Amino acid sequence: MKDLKQMRKRVFKQMLETRGWKYRSFLRYLRLFKYAAFAPTRGTFLESYYVLMRYLDDIVDGDIPLPEGYQSESEYISEKLRFARNPVNPKDEADHMLLYCFELAELFNENFQEETEDILNSLLFDANRRGKLSVFSKEELEHHFHLLDIQGTIRATLKVFKDDPDKYLILEPLGKACRYQYDIEDIEADLAAGYVNIPQEDCEELGIEKADLMDASSPKIREWLYNHAQDGMELLEKHRNIMPEGNFSLIEKWTFLLVYELPARKVFQKLISETKKLPVNHEKIEFSSK
């Protein structure tokens, strides 16, 4: 238990040092949830589970060193996926943290194995494409982001709130909007790491070529971000229109608003207001990552 607490502190410290602007308010919410919801066990689970997934994501992104004994991030995440399916004989602190999370979940009669596999499969997708600047179709990107942001993360969150996890489809527009927010915030870091979250269809439509993917300030990339922000605003409006169908609790509504909707809306509005529409050569191309 002491080692797990140290792991949480270490991950929190790194999050605040590297991207405090992005995570500070969210980390405060994790702590507040324990008391506002009168659910210390669920709150501890949420905090520990988030730390674990943040830790694994940082390994995939190269933000922290790959643990010893592994040749690649893909190999490491593949092993975590196997362990999640059969959680026996833990090898490292990530395995112990996952076991701890599963044990906490049992205390409030929930199981997060399916959601964990969805999230890890999405991380494996990222691990396999890191550094390659590979371009994927919109369908394939949305499939993996759906596993991570909606089918994995939102379903897990609803379970923590003691709600029906199948309501996750009602929150799909919010989940997609948050993904658009991350795309915008992380565009420079993602492209530098070789991740292309711009669908092949958009690359062809806007004439985005490999040279553009090497420069996040490219006019074609900036135009894609502008369009992405506008699409994100539409998703947030759709979210507001259909959210009443979920009959969510007050704490759920406040969580969706403060932790997800408002930060995304702020990013979209800022980019839209600051972007000057300049003429861009939209010569369509046949874009292939092969």
From TrEMBL:
InterPro entries referenced in this protein's UniProt entry, alphabetically: Isoprenoid_synthase_dom_sf (IPR008949), Squ/phyt_synthse (IPR002060)
SUPFAM superfamilies to which the protein is assigned, alphabetical: Terpenoid synthases
Superkingdom per UniProt: Bacteria
Alphabetized CDD domains for the sequence: Isoprenoid_Biosyn_C1 (cd00385)
Pfam families: SQS_PSY
Name this protein carries in UniProt: Class 1 isoprenoid biosynthesis enzyme
Organism encoding this protein: Christiangramia crocea
The organism's taxonomic lineage, starting at the top: Bacteria, Pseudomonadati, Bacteroidota, Flavobacteriia, Flavobacteriales
